[in-house]
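Quick one - inputs below.
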Amino acid sequence: AQKITQTQPGMFVQEKEAVTLDCTYDTSDQSYGLFWYKQPSSGEMIFLIYQGSYDEQNATEGRYSLNFQKARKSANLVISASQLGDSAMYFCAMIQGAQKLVFGQGTRLTINP
Amino acid sequence: GAGVSQSPSNKVTEKGKDVELRCDPISGHTALYWYRQSLGQGLEFLIYFQGNSAPDKSGLPSDRFSAERTGGSVSTLTIQRTQQEDSAVYLCASSSSLKRRETQYFGPGTRLLVL
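Output:
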């Protein structure tokens, strides 16, 4: 079975600093996909970034980038130049088969002014 | 365009009553998913629908839970004889296909409280 581990329950960062949110995964599949979602206090899940296991380059989307280390089975999210609006829960997820997402426990990120 | 919508946004019910939660996916999306988010269990997959294929019900926690999708669009998740442990946020998501790279877009969720 696939498993996602996020070891940081909470993180506190000063505004404008970069932050790395950790995610490790466990799977026996050779082909898989990894997602990061943001969940602000309003509750909706917002898609941030996707990394395929066969993608040759690390994914980037604006201020978000994914530090994908396949051999270590890690897919850390990097947020550059953090903003107050980045305060939220962040979930790492793996797509299982072609259907269901398996989520980690999440990291609560707080950006301090 | 409109995103995934869910109703009601909040639902309070008494133990033992039945509840129905509704999801309206993004227009044109053929795949629809239900997840549950609770404090104790985190985010869990419940069920997914793809077109006219039989749904994958492998995540439903008990036979009190059922879901249907009418006309390949709107879906209803029904919980019969609700229990206090059913209290959670029920999230619906849709995607344009079952391809692994296809992003699942989530609705705002329905917060269910069973008293």
